[in-house]
Amino acid sequence: MSELTLKYGCNPNQKPSRVFMENGSDLPIEVLNGKPGYINLLDAFNGWQLVKELKAATGLPAATSFKHVSPAGAAVGLPLSDIEKKIYWVDDLGELSSLACAYARARGADRMSSFGDFISLSDVCDVSTANLIKREVSDGIIAPGYDDEALEILKGKKKGNYAIIKIDPSYVPEEIERKQVFGVTFEQGRNNLVIDKKLLENVVTDNKEIPDSAKIDLIISLITLKYTQSNSVAYAKGGAAIGIGAGQQSRIHCTRLAGDKADKWFLRQSPQVLELPFRDDIGRPDRDNTIDIYTSADYEDVLAPGQWERLFTKQPEVFTDADKKAWLKKNENVALGSDAFFPFGDNVERAFRSGVKYIAQPGGSIRDDNVIEACNNHDIAMCFIGTRLFHH
What we know:
- By secondary structure, this protein is α/β, with parallel strands linked by helices.
- The protein is 33% helix and 21% strand.
- The chain is built from 13 helices and 15 strands.
- The mean pLDDT is 96.
């Protein structure tokens, strides 16, 4: 099949719509179930590249959760702690495969943004991963294959309309890529930059110690940024991107947005959140939304009289700013990647407040000395990778 006709493009009024191979060759995908849309396929192809590179760089199964052509989360298949199982709502699923752990981490980084995601897996989807996906709100999935039982489980989603795509893992695209904007064709060489530990060797700060675990997290952040709409910044820890700031015009806004998401991820692990007395009839999406509000300045929206009764068996205590700050100080050894240089030290100051200990960024700003000084003041190890990772 060299062409796939789509219902419409980005919006229902954009017709006709299709994807096809200009050279007449077969598409590298097979649609096994459902009818993926235009944006679904954009998410699928970007997500597949991300997880394929993560697997190649780390040797671990990888997963990503995409929304609107940027990852909401990306991770590799490291085991989950008991607390992580709780905050990702998988503590009732028993033993999880490495691939399932990867998706639990990817989905769990920003569960609100992952609602209705498109999933990409580096490995053949197994039953453990399919059972996890089965109960989440998701639009579709792309993977190099599916176990028979896993495929049947996934086919049952969305009343049988769940989009399931199989991709040829050996497919290699042409070196030159093209797209049109306003009737004008743009052409460029593909971004084939290999991101691995060698890219992290130019450590420019006084602290030059970056352990292997942090190098994996930096690699995860950088590969994630390679497929995130720019400007972008990604925080990572424990084998997962825990906060992604995408599509911002200002670098500091990226750093703040990603940092706020990383903070939310860590606040979910606090006893005050883990012990919230949810009613039994409150589903996971509503719990995610409630936790997001509870840990924000708008907490009264879920704690006010007449509101909390809909969600909880008893009224929770306010999670005060002082309590939140005290808990967030426990978040340490976070890695951060930036798709372009930091122009000011304020990015480092904001990152430090979210536990950042390791930074990878291109370097090359006229204020590099100021940024390096800010890192030295906080004993942060920072490397210059020497190359930009813009994605549009």
